[in-house]
Amino acid sequence: MAQRGARKRESVTPATPVRVEIRPEEIRDFEAAIAYLRSRVNFERARTIPRDGLKLDRMRAICELLGCPERATRFVHIAGSKGKGGVAEMLAAALRGCGYTTGLYTSPHLVSERERIRIDGHEVSEREFARLLSHVAGVCEDLPGEMGEATYFEVLTGMALLHFAEQAVDVGVLETGLGGRLDATNVVTPEVCVLTTILHEHTHVLGETLEEIALEKAGILKPEVPAVCAPQDEGVLDIFREQGELLDAPIMVLGEQITFSERFESSPELGPHMRIGVSIGDRSYEHMACPLRGHHQGVNCGLALGALLLLGERGFETPERDVALGLAQTRENGRLEKVWDRPRIYVDGAHTPESVRLLIQSLGSYLRYDSLFVVFGCVRDKDVDGMLDALGRGADKVVFTRAEDSPRAMDPGDLLSRFQSRSGKMAQSAASVRDAVNLAYRGVQGDDVIVVTGSFHVAGEAKRLFLAKRRS
Fold first, then answer.
1. Does residue 9 have a pLDDT over 80?
2. Residue 13 has what pLDDT?
3. Do 259 and 265 contact (CB within 8 A), yes or no?
4. Does the predicted model carry a pTM greater than 0.85?
5. Which of the chain's termini has less CB crowding within 10 Å, N or C?
6. Chain mean pLDDT for the chain
7. Rounded CA gap, 188 and 288, in Å?
8. What is the DSSP string of 138-186?
9. Does position 301 have pLDDT exceeding 80, yes or no?
10. Which neighbouring-strand residues pair with 78?
11. Which helix (H) or strand (E) is 286 found in, with range?
12. Which architecture does CATH list for 337-471?
């Protein structure tokens, strides 16, 4: 069977970062580190992504100059369009519960870049962050000129791999940033791969069809490395199976090669939650409580548990009791995360029509409330109308806003106009997240709930505001 080639993409204009002239040897504290890092090209914030922006050869060269830290650790590598972060959080928590020193690398962050690089749940310290960045930045100075400058994400990836190697973690859990095939994290050869749900995303870079996007995501597959896969569109599964066959990499799909069950229940101890069961052969996890809210998190929990079963076949000891205790310690981290008690205020990174729909559904299933106030802001290059329609079906009142640090943010007034043309629900707009939250706060009564969502930038800005309020 012939391997499909990667589709050529049209060239687009790259984002221009704010240049800060800081030499690597001048990075002596966290503030200087952040200033340097944010001067790098950052595709998470860019309006467009250049055709040649993703260069795996550059990341390989960085690792070579760092002494190949990607070879010092055993990894689980996670790619997909939806659910990567939740799977990563649950898997890392379960591995910690089993006694393994566990590194976790995720993106994007909500409050600080430090939260992207964690060991056993602890963010890298400010001092260590600056030291790691100074070292990686210095190495990047030695890259051949024709390779171009290292990006924001490549520098952070180098820092994470170096940190995990220096601290001799037992296992690292890596979440891809963009795609898979050319993602900076794809320098590792993992013990297990995880492929989450594939949706239309970044079509100008990854491809216009689900099958093209799936081919890019399948780029994380490695020879003879098993992969656990979410139930998918049949065309997507065909791509994954085809690529797995080429690499002799078993593709284990939930509900097919991995027996999978899920049910929604409520108990006095845990309240509403999903119960998950998975099995491969004679190994299984039964009736495991999913620690994250939402019916959709059941599949994500199943993927994490399936990965643990596969790790068990590769020498890891992951007994059910320890896995359950570890799962219970999973961080919500922007997944229906409660940031204030009275009134109840939650933040969530939902930023697609499907994720907004699932958020509204989860709120109705997991929380009791009178009215739902939503503070919403999103970026221009998403399916804005689809998200607005999902909001209109669930929110009682919406306050539109924008994150101050997002150059792609849509104007709140434009969001308000588009929403009012599609819905009869009450809505207002506010210039900042702070103003929008205050506006919603003044309107709540009794047992109402406020949810801040639409993008990780908006959710993160709200979380920072409440963290600061708690400290004051």
1. no
2. 39
3. no
4. yes
5. C
6. 92
7. 30
8. HHHTTS-GGG-PPPHHHHHHHHHHHHHHHTT-SEEEEE-SS-STT-GGG
9. yes
10. 175, 194
11. strand 283-289
12. Alpha-Beta Complex (3.90)
